[in-house]
Amino acid sequence: MPSSFSFRDINFPRGCSLLIIGLCLGYSVTSLTRLPIWGLPFVTAAWLALGYWLRWGAPRSPQRPVVPRIWSWALIPIALWGLYIYLSESFGIVDLSAVFFHLQAGMADHGGVSRVGAAFFYTLSMAALFVSFLWLLRHDHRWRRVEFFLALLLLASNPLLYGVTQRGAAIVTDDGAWMDRQYVKPLILDARDDPPNLLLLYLESIERTYADRERFGDAYADLEAIGEEGLVYEGVYQLDNTGWTMAGMIASQCGTPLMPAGLLHDRQFSPLETVVPGVDCLGDLLSEQGYRLTYMGGASTAFAGKGLFYQDHGFETILGREDLQPRLDDPDYLNNWGLYDDSLYDFTVEEIRRLNEEEGPWGLVNLTLAGHAPRGYPAQRCIDRQGEFDGEDILYSVECSAWLARDLLERLDSEGLLENTLVVIASDHLTMRVSAWEQLIQSKRDNTFMLLGPGIPVDRQTREASMVDVFPTILEAMGFTIDWHRAGLGVSLLSDEPTLIEEHSMEFVNARMREENALQQRLWEGLAPQREETEAAPQEQVVETPEDATGEEPASVQ
Questions:
Q1: Contacts with 125 (C-beta within 8 Å, 6 or more apart), sequence order
Q2: Distance between CA atoms of 417 and 364, rounded to whole angstroms?
Q3: How far apart are CA 479 and CA 192, in angstroms?
Q4: Of 69, 172, 242, 260, which is the most buried if we count CB atoms within 10 A?
Q5: What is residue 133's predicted lDDT score, i.e. its pLDDT?
Q6: Burial, 548: exposed, middle or buried (Cβ in 10 Å; 0-12, 13-18, 19+)?
Q7: How many Å apart are CA 257 and CA 179, to the nearest integer?
Q8: Strand order in the sheet with 421-427
Q9: Does 246 have pLDDT greater than 90?
Q10: How far apart are CA 335 and CA 299, in angstroms?
Q11: How many C-beta atoms surround the C-beta of residue 317 within 10 A?
């Protein structure tokens, strides 16, 4: 029977070890559950009470190990749990695909300086936890007996490993080509005589969920005002593999989730030299129509392969931090990632003036930074307008991003630079963990997506859609005729055709994506030696279950 507690049982190494383990346990519980942070001392106290009651680290009949313990295999699953908690705290939702893609695409010139301190703290905490756990193993044979089972339990319960095993299972799945069979090669079958220009504004992490005034006040009000002059879509949800910047841009410009190259990249320790070379995207189609295309972003184009993507897919001018910083009046007016949005929009106006002076249609894609998690990067113009920023409130940054976007459109319109121009405003993805996280996750979340311009009705429509549907919607909004209202996996929201998730549900599509191999091979065609295949004649769409049927036969299915 456990003995009653006595202060004589306390010694410094034992007390420190149990306290460190208890603090780490308490932090993990408050991080992974909705228990508030003030619950941490209660979890720690409960752990300490249990430890002293059961005499952990000081059994009545100790059995010393034959060899002093300096290592335990249980440290590996403990470390993996530490990594998972760090990623969860940093981003809210742990996306292994994002981790794999950034490792291969390159993380040079990233702006995550604010997380360096947190990473250092986590590293020190994990080192202290390792030492404490090893001390407990050396001094209590009961823990040595359960060490193996504890390691198995920690491995089996870690969501990080769950995601890895799901993708590993795709290698041996019976059918890893469901999504590839739904894919329709993007084609422009017919175009207007006077095609419109395109201004595509990606507002970093500014999801439409912020439009709820009861939870978020007027943070989104300027975007709501913009939407009153155009067509607003509600219900544009986030599929797996579309939840970070490059994935969101590729989904909305290529009509497909971004499945990382993985083992298809035959030089695993070298950065990617091309991004999704196997599919045609918005830039490819517009450049074939004679468009002059520009990408502009405040962050470095070297990060996560952004520059490579736009270079490979039809863009002539690609401008990021390294190109725009020398043009600043104050070269030190920068944030961790790059240019503030007021500076970026000033250069955007200049670029659109240049494009308008030349012959032929143009397209400009713009990516902001103000709403970037965890706190945002409000520009000085916003601080002058909104007052002092406390350094934490993401709603301050959301309001800044929305107001700057509205101000940009008013400036362009006042100069007549938006004549015959389709304006598209979209969030690149749902936000990562921010100060308003608990309010955001109270309901189903969706992305910002609105259209303004010639021929666009003033309306608000609710559809069950995803970011892959943005691509064909933009094409049809520009007056292009496309193959059965489809491009990639997307369906134009201007048509009455059902989207992929309207027909099959988001849960079903995400489940099939976890088994998918063929679409991944299509995206990264050319990165690995190709298997020899006999060329077959075009066939009708293969339907292996009634759920696969689209109800129509696309003219071109690749």
A1: 24, 27, 82
A2: 12
A3: 6
A4: 242
A5: 93
A6: middle
A7: 10
A8: 317-319, 292-297, 362-367, 197-203, 421-427, 449-452, 231-237, 459-466
A9: yes
A10: 9
A11: 16
Mean pLDDT, the chain, as a whole number?
A: 86
Q: Residues 247-282: pLDDT tens digits?
A: 999 999 999 999 887 544 444 445 678 899 999 999
Indicate the SS3 state at residue 299: strand
The H or E element that residue 486 is part of is strand 486-487
Q: If you ran DSSP here, which 8-state letter would residue 240 be given?
A: T
Spatial CB neighbours of 358, under 8 Å, sequence gap ≥ 6: 292
Mapping DSSP onto H, E and C, the string for 158-221 reads: CHHHHHHHHHHHHCCCCCCCHHHHHCECCCEEECCCCCCEEEEEEECCCCHHHHCHHHHCCCCH
Which are the contacts of 256, defined by CB distance < 8 A and separation ≥ 6? 183, 250, 276, 279, 468, 488, 489, 519, 523
Closest CA to 281 of 363, 343, 389: 363
Tracing tokens 């100069």 back to the chain, one arrives at: 415
Residue 45: C-alpha distances to residues 6, 18, 19, 22, 110 (Å): 16, 10, 9, 7, 40
pLDDT surpasses 90 at 411? yes
The neighbour count for residue 16, using CB atoms within 10 Å, is 14
Q: What are the angstrom distances between the C-alpha of 451 and each of 360, 425, 463, 482?
A: 22, 7, 15, 18
Q: Can you read off the two tokens belonging to residue 516?
A: 């998918």
DSSP letter string, 218-237: TTTHHHHHHHTTSEEEEEEE
CA distances from 529 to 10, 62, 177, 558 (A): 64, 60, 19, 20
Distance, CA of 57 to CA of 138 (rounded, Å) = 8
Query: What b-and-e string marks burial along 173-198, b requiring 16 or more CB atoms within 10 Å of the CB?
Result: eeebbbbbbbbbbbbbeebeeebbbb
d(CA 445, CA 217): 17
Is residue 249 classed as helix, strand or coil in its secondary structure? helix
**Buried-state track 484-513, b at ≥16 Cβ within 10 A, e below 16:** bbbbbbbbbbbeebebbbbbbebeebeebb
Q: Do the Cβ atoms of 84 and 94 come closer than 8 Å? A: yes
Nearest residue to 425 via CA among 255, 246, 228: 228
Residue 389 and residue 396: Cα distance in Å, rounded? 7
423 has which bridge partners? 199, 452
Closest CA to 510 of 249, 258, 239: 239
